[in-house]
Write a structure and sequence with these properties.
This protein is an alpha/beta fold and about 300 residues long. It has a single domain, classed as 3-Layer(aba) Sandwich (UDP-N-acetylmuramoyl-L-alanine:D-glutamate ligase), CATH 3.40.1190. The chain is built from ten helices and 13 strands. A nine-stranded mixed β-sheet has the order 5-4-1-8-9-10-11-12-13, sandwiched between helices. A four-stranded mixed β-sheet has the order 3-2-6-7. Strand 8, helix 4 and strand 9 form a beta-alpha-beta unit. Helix 1 crosses helix 8, helix 3 runs parallel beside helix 4 and helix 8 runs antiparallel to helix 9. The two termini are about 25 Å apart. Bound molecules: alpha-D-ribofuranose. The site of alpha-D-ribofuranose has 16 residues, from strand 2, helix 1, strand 7 and helix 8.
């Protein structure tokens, strides 16, 4: 079973021909709302991959609370540990440019009310065969507490060090498995501007120093990872992205589900990379997360 302790947002998404520069105004083409939040997206991806998933987080008591949970509810994710805080549901203001790239500002809202006590409570019901998955959109003390308690209990811990906050490297070192994109990995490695070879060397160095499984997602270039002393590389699909929002979350959720379902590491990576590619083919974080059958057809 997988428990995701993380953020739940309502995404407010506008599309534009190109993303604006600071201080610039550009015309928008469309506007839509969609359920999002890194935690919720990852929980939904793991559920759609076929895993049994519990989401632990918080929404407000406002008009965004139910729509933010609707896709998870529909997929069958366990929502019995979602708190209802006396503040707004988290929101993400997202611009998607014509090339599929995006800019995001997140207002934490209810996500910011999660505490160390919530971490204690959720980890106390976990078994060593379980997986705990975290990201960095909820308060750092809660993430830290969950990681240290879960590791002490023998639970497998997976952290996606996104978004890139000051404590990303420190928290990244606390989990059994760390997932980062290129920029986040540079923070983890403490080295900027790496080329592909330097990145692989840094990956293997961190892996041998910490014993952690380290995974770096490289967008269209696929994924590299270090586990059990070996370097792994896999590719997603060749696609023309429409909207990349949530693609990294889809990768994380599918990857955790794959390991939980007993897939070997390479197969779990490849399936997750394909799922991440498919998530770029339509708009909205959660609406674009593919079902397992679609991913399997594209393997
Ligand atoms: O990773 C994508 C997510 O980041 C969006 O759904 C948005 O809510 C932000 O949290």
């Amino acid at each position: 079973m997988i428990t995701v302790f993380g953020s739940i947002n309502m995404d407010l998404v506008a599309t534009t021909e190109r993303l604006p520069k600071p201080g610039e105004t550009v015309a928008g083409n469309s506007f839509a709302t969609a359920a999002g939040g890194k935690g919720a997206n990852q929980a939904l991806a793991a559920t759609r991959a076929g895993a049994t998933v519990k989401m632990v987080g918080a929404v407000g008591k406002d008009e965004f609370a139910e729509p933010a949970l609707a896709e998870l509810l529909d997929a069958g994710t366990d929502l019995t540990s979602i708190a209802r805080a006396d503040t707004a549901t988290g929101t993400a203001l997202i611009l998607v440019g014509g090339d599929g790239e995006n800019m995001i500002a997140v207002v934490a809202g209810a996500n910011g009310t999660l505490t160390e006590d919530d971490a204690v409570k959720l980890v106390s019901s976990m078994a060593p065969s379980d997986t705990l998955m975290l990201q960095l959109e909820i308060p750092v003390p809660a993430v830290k507490k969950a990681l240290s308690l879960a590791r002490g209990r023998g639970v497998t811990t997976v952290i996606n060090i996104a978004p890139l906050i000051d404590e990303a490297a420190e928290l990244g070192r606390m989990a059994d498995i760390v997932i980062a994109n290129e920029t986040e990995f540079e923070r983890l490695a403490g080295q900027e501007g790496m080329n592909a070879d330097e990145r692989k060397q840094a990956l293997m160095r961190i892996h041998s120093e910490t014993g952690q499984t380290v995974i770096v997602t490289l967008g269209a270039e696929g994924v590299i990872a270090a586990r059990d002393g070996s370097l792994h590389e896999t590719k997603g699909l060749k696609i023309n992205p429409i909207d990349t929002v949530g693609a990294g979350d889809t990768f994380c959720g599918y990857f955790a589900a794959g390991l939980d379902q007993g897939l070997d590491f390479g197969t779990a990576l490849r399936r997750a990379a394909v799922a991440g590619s498919l998530a770029c083919l339509s708009q909205g974080a959660q609406p674009s997360i593919p079902l397992a059958a679609e991913v399997n057809r594209n393997l």
